[in-house]
Design brief:
Blueprint (H helix, E strand, L loop, with lengths): L1 H6 L5 H10 L3 H18 L6 H19 L14 H6 L8
Helix pairs in contact: 2-4, 3-4
């Protein structure tokens, strides 16, 4: 997931569609997000960045929407001061 999010153009629809097709369930997608985050965060100082987190979250959201059969606009929480807090908030939750 980290590899795809950092090396592919996530705005191209086929990227998220192909990635979502590899995930069999939403639970598998959720677990892969957590695994990818913990892997990057645990490697060492400086590996995790807000930019990498936003790419990871972008791929997750796009794949989740494909799996749900929805094309609604993403809901983000840009007002959260902490990118890690923003990463784990469900898309329907407000930070305010």
């Amino acid at each position: 997931m980290a590899h795809i999010s950092q090396r592919r153009d996530l705005t191209e629809p086929h990227v998220a569609t192909a990635f979502a097709a590899q995930m069999e369930t939403l639970d598998a997608l959720n677990m892969l997000l957590l695994l990818s985050y913990s892997d990057m965060k645990g490697v060492g100082p400086g590996v995790w960045s807000e930019w990498k987190g936003s790419l990871l979250w972008d791929l997750y959201e796009r794949a989740r929407l494909r799996m749900a059969g929805s094309e609604r606009p993403r809901m983000t929480c840009e007002d959260c001061p902490n990118s890690e807090k923003r990463l784990w908030l469900p898309s329907k939750v407000s930070c305010r």
